[in-house]
Specification:
This protein is α+β, with helices and mostly antiparallel strands and about 190 residues long. About 45% of the residues lie in helices and about 10% in strands. The chain has a 4-stranded antiparallel beta sheet.
């Protein structure tokens, strides 16, 4: 797997896009000239997402919200990577992927203990750190304040699909900590079946 392919695997839309993606023209213009139409679009998107999540929290039971957001995360991964994989992973593919993650993000990014993998996002390529409040999702990295923690279930779906594509065994992903749920990190536990 080359560097570009690896970075694209780690980041895409939904909960995890910003880690490997180059900022788009709108994001570049926005950072250089606050108040641009791009800034207004971004503000609108944040307001829309917060309002939608509030409606979901009020109208849907927790299990349904979780299922829908995880489905969205998986769909985001598929959309960013051209749909379903062409072939099934082979034994050893997961270990190769984990080594690539360590090489790219450091030893603390991923750790395997038998059938359990501990995975965390630490920083983006520009050095912005999760512990300092940077969120991996480009939609919510600057806010909106008070966004429902349910939103982070999207990242669970994304990480599930990312690891499923590299494991010849089923995976179950648990979100251990996220910024939108009051944490200081973005940490996952992946159980291999």
């Amino acid at each position: 797997m080359d560097r570009k392919q690896f970075l694209t695997t780690l980041g895409g839309c939904c909960g995890l896009a910003a880690i490997g993606a180059e900022p788009g023209a709108c994001a570049q213009a926005q950072s250089q000239t606050p108040g641009t139409p791009c800034d207004k679009k971004y503000d609108f998107a944040q307001t829309w997402v917060k309002r939608f999540m509030n409606i979901m929290d009020a109208e849907l039971d927790p299990a349904t919200r979780t299922r829908l957001l995880r489905m969205q995360g998986r769909a985001c991964f598929e959309g960013a990577h051209g749909g379903a994989p062409a072939e099934r992973p082979k034994p050893g593919d997961l270990d190769k992927f984990l080594e690539a993650v360590k090489k790219w993000g450091g030893e603390e990014m991923v750790r395997r203990e038998g059938d359990v993998i501990h995975f965390q996002y630490i920083a983006n390529p520009a050095g912005l750190r999760v512990a300092d409040g940077w969120c991996l999702c480009p939609v919510v990295e600057r806010g909106p304040d008070g966004l429902s923690g349910t939103y982070c279930e999207c990242s669970v779906g994304y990480v599930t699909e990312m690891f499923r594509r590299h494991s010849d065994r089923p995976v179950k992903v648990e979100l251990l900590e996220s910024l939108k749920r009051g944490g200081k990190g973005c940490r996952f536990r992946i159980q291999l079946a």
